[in-house]
Amino acid sequence: MPRTHLVLDAAFTVGPVRRRLFGGFVEHLGRHVYDGIHEPAHETADEHGFRKDVIELVKELGVSAIRYPGGNFVSGYKWEDGVGPVDQRPRRLDLAWHSTETNEVGLHEFQHWLDQVDSELMLAVNLGTRGTQEAIELLEYANIDAGTALSEYRRSNGRQEPFAITMWCLGNEMDGPWQLGHKNAEDYGKLAAMTAKAMRQIQPDLELVACGSSGASMPTFGEWERTVLEHAYDDVDYISAHAYYEEDGDMASFLASGVNMDHFIKTVTTAADHVQAQKKSDKRIDISFDEWNVWSISKWNEQQKTFELQDWPVAPRLLEDVYTVADAVVVGGLLISLLRHADRVASASLAQLVNVIGPIMTEPGGPAWRQTTFFPFSLTSKLANGTSLQVKASGDTVDGGKYGEVPVVDSAATIGDGTAAVFLVNRHQTESTTVTIDLAGIGADGEVRAEGIWEDDVHLVNDLSDTERVGLRTNETVRREGDTVTIELPPVSWTAVSIG
Ligand code: AHR
């Protein structure tokens, strides 16, 4: 049986675990908003039409900041369409997803929903088909108290106090040729800098995110970040990163997706630090990893080919990936990568939340349920507190497909107030593996528990026919003797060990 030994020491810290690391993302896309979080005819709907059963699941998931309203959608969006009397709002073509946007839900309604789920709004502005002027108008509408045309307009729409939105995304994936208003790095960097400067004239303490690359495989990856930041370094706080992974017939590589995420983070921080050095700046730019998940992009590419030009449906079933146990293990592994880089990843958003590549699914008039990926996210969000630690790991390796030989076990650890948590993935496809954890350096006493996700059939899913087929399981093999914890991890598994 492969073996791994981990040493934890409170002196070797990565950085604080910021709550924004456990963010989410809600885009006007498919059945995410309409027939997802919002379904006025559903028996659980509140007075604004939001499903309370979904609200409960989102709370249980433990998401912090939620990015909104896109995604590709935002690059063609007019925020003004989503405010004012609902029955007077225009229906528009959504070019990004070839759908009809009814605008029944806009900023006010979404903020109401966020108040129910207790999450912070991270708002994206349209720098695709629109620009600086519309961004500062939205900021005036949202954040100015009173006494100007747009702040008074907000008040007349029923919201007296400002929305007080702190974190703003300056566009979405502007490096992608699929994006409405796609730009080269020079043009986008200048636009981002100009927009950020204007926004800061209204409110200097905003936290602004410039678009980074929409994937590590983009031909401009690295160079894009450098060029954008050469223009916008002084004006923004974060550079975004987006990454999606899929099984695609190669389970070994899929299980090692965290290696790719590590590389992604290292490349982006290197590019940012290069510009910092060039500019002799004291300021550091960190990452907003504001889209990450498992997503079967190849299935989506096939689905797109079936679209008819004349069809513009409302809330069609798009990107409704049904997640397997293996997908959940990879999601848990990606969270491990994010925790390992808690010093440079200031914020991250699981993309997305409900129905659309989401950990939560719903049926119109029917139930809402947890997908497999729900479990590693909710448990990590709950247990990862305090400070992320560097884990000193030694042990066996396994074939990681296109990433070469990789450690059998991937791990991250956090320590809080007298508590600790260790997150583990066994990437071996056929063998269990033994892990020993040396806790002498962290001084955490108390009960040791281990919960995780694994099944003999790694392709098991939760779906409408059985919404609770897969869930968290207790790993009964965990033992503590003095300062050493020993646990056996089943093949293709994700586990969280909590201490104290
Ligand atoms: O999350 C789905 C889409 O993926 C987003 O709209 C876009 O930003 C990315 O390409």
Automatic annotation (TrEMBL):
Top-tier EC class: hydrolase
Domain annotation Alpha-L-arabinofuranosidase C-terminal: ranges: 290-493
Xref: Pfam families: Alpha-L-AF_C, ASD1_dom
Hydrolase among keywords: yes
GO biological process, alphabetically ordered: L-arabinose metabolic process; polysaccharide catabolic process
Keyword hit for Lyase: no
Keywords: Carbohydrate metabolism, Glycosidase, Hydrolase
SMART domains found in the cross-reference section: Alpha-L-AF_C
Recorded GO MF terms: alpha-L-arabinofuranosidase activity
Enzyme Commission number(s) from the entry: 3.2.1.55
Reactions mediated catalytically: Hydrolysis of terminal non-reducing alpha-L-arabinofuranoside residues in alpha-L-arabinosides
Family of this protein: Belongs to the glycosyl hydrolase 51 family.
PANTHER family: ALPHA-L-ARABINOFURANOSIDASE C (PTHR43576:SF3), ALPHA-L-ARABINOFURANOSIDASE C-RELATED (PTHR43576)
Complexes and interactors: Homohexamer; trimer of dimers.
Name of this protein: non-reducing end alpha-L-arabinofuranosidase
Organism: Curtobacterium luteum
Gene encoding the protein: abfA3
